């Protein structure tokens, strides 16, 4: 038999992919020699010399799919290349990532593709380094030292050279520093750099916020020229500014926001007209004060959005604008853009118009106050706001109509609980409670959705280039997995042409409501959904079941809304000429991409800050027991969220009762081979706080017991599951104690 490395490479060098069975014949491999050939093929795939395609077809390296993407590494060393053009991530084992870091832009080669479509690859070229600076804790080592990164994904420490060039003398042991990378890892050479800034002591709330700001490179200080532009803006509406605007100052208009809100960018007003209801949604006219191409505009574009931490806001615009002349404060005149809409008794929009306006808000209401009036029937609140009660009841009626229309077309509502962090004056977490979402929230939510949708339809029908808020169909592979998963519980989900109608998902959520498996199916369904983004092309909004949708209602804190305001103004004034259209059409794709990226970075930073506060809250809870839900299942353990505190931690698989645990990926479960004990996503369990691992930003739990027993039947026979996820000659992915 000619089955050595050279023989295999010569066979593949002919340029044509070779199926395994054809290779057996070409190399004259006997039955008892196949194992040696298999081992050699696996070795060549592992080293990246050849590629394995679906159907067990082999080809030379470089002939398989190639892609460019961003590398995302796990704290355990392995990583995924996320293609810039979209599509499935490419898995890269840890042993091939020694010279690469989280965030790097790379080119990668696919070396194998499984039957389920999941791919494995090797990095073939570095395009651009993703990290140039590192925030972390400094540890002195003699006259030198090292920086332990705050981001565990980086997976390696940065070594600081002694002397002035390394800056080790700037910091004290344990302080948080910002270090600039001077040399990236290569072979035996480690990651090296120099300290450029000392942020301060590790447990200082100001330093904690600054750490996240530096880590995510969030612009947080306005320079003098930007501030000068902001300070030059008037703080009162001038007579000149009122000219040409619809005067709504005599309309009863109110803002409804949270208790701590300081920037009010939307105000609402209603009027009953027979069985119809007219709605005015007036939005702060930020574009009047922030001229396109100005320093204020450039800075707002750079930031993309405001950032909200538990103890502070990093605004997109300076406070002179965001809390001043642009904010729809009560009893003062403000310039606005108004969407005026008329809805019939069934909640359908039958008329609409848009215009620049001037309003005078009659009251600054809070969600709590509106709830007291409409839900609690609080006599004191009703008396204090007697002049507003009638209109608030009309708002309630209209919001219910609008919600019924959305539900009728299949809009998906995930009413998932969100945590609210309660801080003391020193910035320490004193409590974590469930953020309330009451009728007042839903009123404003429905009105803003209606305005956004109306503006999107108008601009699309004009037609002019615009920015859209798009939400694409769920991933086809995940949809099929979901369909198979819910079938095991007796539910059906029709997937046609790799797509699903949002109404079908809404129907599924309604069917499982109140059932033991409700949380389980909600969690799995949520994991199927793609992330909404901005686009210059209207791709529809799957989650809202809307054919056209945009963001128009928050220009104080979101740059895309400001862009949409400018486009709408040009259309209404008749200034959208051919040259403007061409220029806009050329620029919008980059604007959509940039603002989508800024939104994702902001969400990650906000989530990390909340997680940090949660972790700190658990420091003195070691040994205490809580009820929790399993929110994720992996071969190495269970992710659990505590019921009352919304804190997530992990139960390592090594701490589970002694058994051999099989990870059933599609079923989101770990199953014990001997005991058949099953731990599945959304199961309710009892855990004890075992440790708070601050360097890894992780709370560790120990299993105390299960609170709800799940039947094994919805999962296919575990023995068959072993056959579905084999690892050549080995047992399925799991851990044994």
UniProtKB/TrEMBL annotation:
UniProtKB keywords: Cytoplasm, Exonuclease, Hydrolase, Nuclease, RNA-binding
Keyword match rRNA-binding: no
S1 motif domain: residues covered: 64-128, 623-704
Superkingdom of source: Bacteria
Primary location: cytoplasm
Subcellular location: Cytoplasm
Substrates-to-products reaction catalysed: Exonucleolytic cleavage in the 3'- to 5'-direction to yield nucleoside 5'-phosphates
Entry keyword annotation includes Mitochondrion: no
Physiological role: 3'-5' exoribonuclease that releases 5'-nucleoside monophosphates and is involved in maturation of structured RNAs.
Family, as annotated: Belongs to the RNR ribonuclease family. RNase R subfamily.
Name of protein: Ribonuclease R
Organism name: Geomonas diazotrophica
Designated gene of the protein: rnr
